[in-house]
Amino acid sequence: MRNWRVTALAAGAIAVTMVAAGSFSVAESTGEGLIKYRKALMGANGGHMGALAGIVRGEAEHGADDVLVHATAINAIAGLLPDAFMENAEGAETRALPAIWENWDDFAAKAAALEEASAALMEAAEGGDMEAIGAAFGPVGASCGGCHETYRAQ
Ligand code: HEC
Questions:
Q1: What is the pLDDT of residue 6?
Q2: CB-based contact 35:94 (threshold 8 Å)
Q3: What is the Cα–Cα distance from 113 to 119, expressed in whole angstroms?
């Protein structure tokens, strides 16, 4: 009975994997998958910023260790942005503006600015001083906004 269940579960997992792999290759060929991926990266950015804002404002009872986790995640995501946006994908609704590919170096510089601002926040978090963390948080938000202003449709 037990083995039977395990086998059924394994078969289910394989089926799910096959469906996921199949839909991914279809999505990729239309650019839909890439657009979804970019939005997921940005959604993750938004989640981490929301968590950080709560900590910095003192609404969430968490300290520098948590700040370090969120800052590190944003820093890593910033490093993924040039690759994720390199291709002007089509096939799904997107707010990415054509200006990105007309001014690629500037767009990449704005991703690098987020990488630097989040690295400074990581450093402040490692120092453990909440005041320094608060001061380093603002520039991170400013680099999100700095890119959206020019490269994301309202
Ligand atoms: C280098 C440019 C750039 C930086 C830096 C950047 N973004 Fe974005 N962001 C974009 C673009 C372009 C889009 C539109 C993506 C699309 O619709 O395909 C976007 C979309 C979003 C979205 C909407 C996602 C969705 O599901 O439609 C959120 C939320 C977001 N960004 C949050 C952030 C946060 C928070 C930061 C900073 C931690 C940030 N972004 C940094 C360029 C950037």
A1: 52
A2: yes
A3: 10
**96 near 37, Cβ under 8 Å?**
no
Residues with CB under 6 A from ligand 1: 35, 38-39, 42-43, 45-46, 49, 74, 81, 94-96, 107, 110-111, 114, 140, 143-144, 147-148, 151-152
Alpha-carbon Rg for the chain, nearest whole angstrom, is 20
**pLDDT tens, 110-132?**
999 999 999 999 999 999 999 99
Ligand 1 atom with least separation from CA of 40: 26
Residue 22 structure tokens: 């199949």
The amino acid at 22:
G
What is the C-alpha separation between 70 and 90, in angstroms, rounded? 31
Q: Residues for the chain: how many in total?
A: 154
Residue type, position 153, single letter: A
d(CA 12, CA 9): 5
- Put simply, whether the predicted model's pTM sits higher than 0.90 gets the answer no
- For residue 106, pLDDT over 50 is answered with yes
Distance CA 105, CA 125 (A): 30
Nearest C-alpha neighbor of 111 from the set 128, 125, 93, 96: 96
